[in-house]
Amino acid sequence: MQPLQITQITACKNLKPRHNREKLPPIFKLQAVSTCPNNLDTEPWLDEMKAYFIPFWLRLTIVISVVCVVIGGVLAAYRVYMRPTVLTVAVGSLDGETNKIASLLAGHIAASSTASVHLKIINEPDILAAANGFREGKADLAVVRADTENLPKARTVAQVARAAAVIVTPAGSNYTKFRELSGKTIGVVGAEINSGLVTALSNEYDTARLKIAFKNISINDARQAIISNEVAALLMVLPIARRYIAYIDKIFQNDSDLAPNILSIDGAEAIANTERAYNVFVVPQGSLQGSPQIPPDNRITLATNVYLVARDDLDPDLVANLTREIMIAKRDLGIEQPALAQIIAPELDSAAYIPVHPGAAEYYNNTQRDWLDKYANWIFLLPIIFGIGATTFAATWKFLEFENDRFQETLMATNYHLPRKIRSATSEIELQQIEEEIDSLLHAHLTHARPGRESDSNMLLLHSAAQRLDNLIHHQRSRIVMGGSM
Prior knowledge:
- The chain is built from 16 helices and 14 strands.
- By secondary structure, the protein is an alpha/beta fold.
- The radius of gyration is 46 Å and the shape is rod-shaped.
C-alpha cells in the first residue's frame, strides 16, 4: 500500500483563520494540488489534517531499535558481570621467592576457565613495604606477617607460611640461651620489620640491664659483621625451609666441622602470652642440618605466622571464590612447588589476632551460600519482572497499532465544516474540490482504521456523514445549475 498523501488546498491570503489550534509536525509531506478560486479559503479543519501519523514501518523500526538496544545492554551487563574481578596483591620478600610463588599462583588462577577472580601482583622490595602498600590502600590483598603493626582493616584469607625467630651464633660458641648474650651485640637482619620482636625481647629480658644491644644489619653485610666480631649473634625471622637455611649456611660457613649454634629463647612462652602475634615454636634437633646436627638438640623459640590478608570490605563471595582457587592451585602445583604446602587455613576462632575474612571462613567451614540463597530475592522479584515485561509488551503492541487520536477528532470535525463549505460553494469546480476532499478523508480513515468495535462505530458514523454530504452536494449542484439557467 502506498503511503497516504493528504491533499492540501492552498490557503487564500485575504481570509483569516477561524480557529487557533496547535500545529502538529507533519510526517507525511503534504502535496498542494490546487489553488483557491475566488475568495475560497482552506478551513482550519483542513490544516488539522496535517496531523501526523507514525507509519507502521517507522513504528516497527523504533520497536526493533529499542529491542536491539535492550538486548545489547543485557549482553554487555552479562559480560561485565561474568568478567573475572581483578584483585591486586602486594607481595615482598628479601630474596624475591615469595614474589615468584605469588606470580605462579596468579598465573594458575588466570588459566582456570571457571575462576571468577584474578590476581594482579604488585612487587615490593620486602614484606614491610607490602604491608605499607596494603595499609595505604594501594592493594586489595597483601602477604604480611602477623606481628606487622597497624593493620586494622586486614582479614586473613590463608596462612601462607610460618616464620621462626632464630638467634644464631658462630661455630664453636658456647651460648645456648638468649640471656647468655649479656654484654653482647645482636645483629638484627631486617630491623624495621622485626622491631616488634626486638621490643618483646627487650621487655621480657630487660636487655638494658643485661647490656644486650641490637644493631641493624643488612643481609649482605651479615657475614662480614660476624667475621669482624662486630656482632656476637644474628637474629633472623625466616621460614624453617631448606632455601632459607641456606642463608644461615652461607653466613656462618667455616673450614672446621663445627656447626653454627642456635640459641633458645627460654622466655618464649611468657612473650607469647603477652604478645599475641607470636607463639611458641620448637626447632627440632637436626631439623636445619643433619650432619653435623643443627641444632644439636631441641630449641625453644618464637614464631609468627605469615598471612595472605584482604581488606575487610571485600565482598565475602569474592573472597570465598579466591580462597577456593588458591587451594585448588596448591593442590595442582604442590608437587613442583613444595613451598605451597605451607598454605593452610588460618585460625578461624573469632578471637584470633587477625580475624579471618567472612568469605574465607565460609569456604573453610563449607558454609558458602548456594544458588538458592544467593538469588532468593531475584526469584521473589521474578513475577514482578514478568508483570512489567507483560505490560511493556502490551504497550509495544499497542504502539505498533497506533492511530493518532488527533486525526479522529479532526475527521469528526469535518462533519461540521464541510456542510457549511458546500452551502457556500458557487461553482461546479468548488463542488468537485469538496468531493475530492471527502474522498481523501474516507481513504485516510480506511487506511488507518484498526479492527474493533470503536472502528466499526466510526465507520457507521462516517458512512452516515458521507451520505449527508453527498445529498448536500447534489442539492447545491442543482441550485447552481438552476441559478445558471435563470
